[in-house]
Fold this protein.
Amino acid sequence: MFYHILIIFIIVTWHELGHFFMAKSFNWEIRRITLWIFGGVMETDEHLNKPLNEQFLVTIAGPVQHLLIFLIILLLKQTTLLLPEHLAFAYQYNLLILFFNFLPIWPLDGGKLLSFIFHIVSPFKRAHQYTLIFSFMSIFIFLICMIKWSQALVNVAVLITFLFWENKLEWKRRLYVYQRFLLARMNQHIKEKKMQPLLFLSHVKLKSVFEHFYLNKFHPILIRDKQIITSELDCLNYYFNQGQYHATLSDLTQQTKK
């Protein structure tokens, strides 16, 4: 039992350290790492506010560690350092946690990879909501499958409770995540983002304009009926720094003329 717990702890820790060191290489701020018997969670406010390539590398850095662990297990089989049953347990649990982490459930690695896909095809606000909705559906399907197969129901109950609670918390804070995304855009470098113009009429409110913003894309704002081009930074500054929470694009253009 001691060796089994030690093996699980090493695998879980190794996985999270993969995320940690990759995040630190991009100078991300890490709040904490929580380790569970079935996995771990690295908590950071940087997710969803960094370039997609950084988010992808930080996310995939965890699962990649399992390939390294498989290699080490194969090397250890050529020695007598560990008993065969301990190596078999390490192989089995390493495979299990790798499979589990690729489930499309937030905040598992599979859920984050799914989030990247939604962010490529949808604006930020909708992409985040789609991720959580799909995650809730995946939790339900996972529960039904485990009940049908009658596999480790006590362990599954603990996992489902944890995942459901994490998703519930993320759903409750989705507006905070969205506001944080908008505030972060004011400090990001435009040259690092692709250009995608957005077309609106002047009566459209700024908060409706923001709902069309994509992650890692810069949006020139074209006001069709006034034949005016403005930038997303002007809209964000007018909205947040001047407190114009109910302003329209027309209000912004009039303020600019003054």
Q: What stands out?
A: The CA atoms of residues 3 and 86 lie 7 Å apart. The first helix runs from residue 2 to 25. The chain has a mean pLDDT of 87. The two ends are 74 Å apart (CA to CA).
